[in-house]
Amino acid sequence: MNPLPVIVIGAGHAGVECAFALRQAGVPQDILLIGDEPHLPYERPPLSKAMLSDALDIERVQLKPMAAFDKARITLRRGERVARLDTASRTVHLAGGEALHYSDCILATGGRARLLPGMDAMQVHAIRTLDDALRLKPELVPGQRLVVIGAGYLGLEIASTAAKLGLHVTVLENGRLMGGKVSPYTEARFAALHRDAGVALFTGVAVARCEGGPGDWRITLADGAEHEADLLLVSIGAVPNTELAEAAGIRCHDGIEVDALCQTSASGLFAIGDCANAHSHHGQRRCRIESVQNALFQARTVAAQLAGKPVAAVRPPTFWSEQCGKRLQMAGLVLLDAPIDDHVTHTDRGWVVERFQQGALRAVEAVDSPVDFVQKTRMIAAPISMETPACTTLSTEPQHA
Ligand SMILES: Cc1cc2nc3c(=O)[nH]c(=O)nc-3n(C[C@H](O)[C@H](O)[C@H](O)COP(=O)(O)OP(=O)(O)OC[C@H]3O[C@@H](n4cnc5c(N)ncnc54)[C@H](O)[C@@H]3O)c2cc1C
Questions:
Q1: Which of 104, 119, 138, 367 is 20 to 30 Å from 126 by CA-CA measure?
Q2: Of the candidates 61, 53, 49, 200, which has an alpha carbon nearest to the alpha carbon of residue 140?
Q3: Of the residues 292, 315, 321, 328, which should be mutated to test ligand 1's pocket, given the most ligand atoms within 8 Å of the CB?
Q4: How much is the pLDDT for 398?
Q5: In the chain, what are the domain boundaries?
Q6: Residue 236: phi, psi to the nearest 5?
Q7: Which atom of ligand 1 is nearest the CA belonging to 83?
Q8: Is the CB of 274 within 6 Å of ligand 1?
Q9: Rounded to whole angstroms, what are the CA distances from 110 to 50, 67, 162, 391?
Q10: The predicted structure's pLDDT at residue 123
């Protein structure tokens, strides 16, 4: 047995799943999970959903109780930051000065909220961490004016929750709703739902500057229009945490580049979850997929590999969102630059959009139609088998999902 531990850096969805999957797959070594947040590892999806409106306490969003880590013999070191990685000597250096040697290391460092240039020092809200949600929640008071910059999934989820709580909500988006990742039909339906719920939704507008501070924000658009707000939330996506990998000389481009088995350009070093940029068999391009399902899948892929077990077949990536009392589920990825033929079907409570390209079903969206979602997702065009990884050679063309 290799006496050195397997070290997982980052204790989010991907890191925690990987640590447990390693143990379940029978990896005999010590497993060390290092996370820089002070909390027990927690789920992020509720942070922009139930956590902001319900009395969801911190325990309810925890991924596992402490006893589960002990039982699985996983050493969780929380509140500790990895400052440096030396892949030649296989050493992890903690910010506190400690050096730890590893047999294999998994980077699961996730991402951080992207802000507008010059905004770091300002007291805007963003939503990425439990602390972000705990800071925002008490400020969602009826009658307050909230401006949300960015109509991605998270921005819209928060806008919808805030409107329901009685705030006056304005959303400013310079592109399309949900990053243009949903069909025009679903986009239009959700735009109408948000507007019906009282959200002032502006698309195709560019924010030129934000001035003021909490309780008195003034947001000026490129066309000169102004919006005033008590609260300002910036929700314009995430930046992958690649600094450790980059400083260690690992190939990165919009994330840490990995092959189909999540291996980076250094041996014994893997990257999974939001920080990893992999070839998507379904999307037929390199991209980062920011979803719980992807984080779990990549975590299990690495664990199986290190335990010498077969790796599971690739399934279509899935994602969900909750807005305006509706549950949107998505599966698959459309190809870039190929015409899309959308087929819309109305169901008892919502609708389903099947998205065809080049004669094959590429993606499915379902709103309040979970059974249809499962059935249609099974029909998404099968990808290339995992046994013949399509990207043992790393491409240099990163593209977003
Ligand atoms: C508000 C919100 C809502 C979401 N809703 C959905 C949803 O509805 N459905 C869905 O599928 N997905 C959703 N997502 C996306 C999903 O949560 C992410 O894809 C998933 O959490 C990624 O997990 P991860 O482990 O890769 O990264 P993360 O969860 O970001 O975890 C990475 C961890 O690594 C730590 N770390 C970074 N650098 C270091 C270091 N040097 N040393 C030690 N620790 C470090 C970070 O602090 C963090 O704790 C949501 C995300 C957010 C933020």
A1: 367
A2: 53
A3: 292
A4: 28
A5: 6-112+239-306, 115-236, 334-377
A6: -120, 35
A7: 41
A8: yes
A9: 22, 25, 26, 22
A10: 86
Q: What is the pLDDT of residue 117?
A: 86
Across the strands, what pairs with 125? 233
Q: Is 61 in the pocket of ligand 1 (CB under 6 A)?
A: no
Q: Is 60 helix (H, G, I), strand (E, B) or coil?
A: helix
Cα(12)–Cα(64) distance, rounded to whole angstroms? 11
Q: Flag residues of the chain having pLDDT under 50.
A: 384-401
Q: Which residue has the tokens 């094959």?
A: 360
- Please tell me if the CB atom of residue 155 comes closer than 6 angstroms to any atom of ligand 1: no
Q: Please state the atom number of ligand 1 nearest to the C-alpha of residue 128.
A: 53
Identify the pLDDT of residue 54: 80
Q: Which fold has domain 115-236?
A: FAD/NAD(P)-binding domain (3.50.50)
Neighbours of 123 (CB within 10 A): 13
Residue in 111, 171, 126 with CA at minimum distance from that of residue 295: 111
Does 6-112+239-306 match 115-236 in CATH topology?
Answer: yes
Q: Which top CATH class is 6-112+239-306?
A: alpha beta
Cβ(150) – ligand 1 distance below 6 Å: no
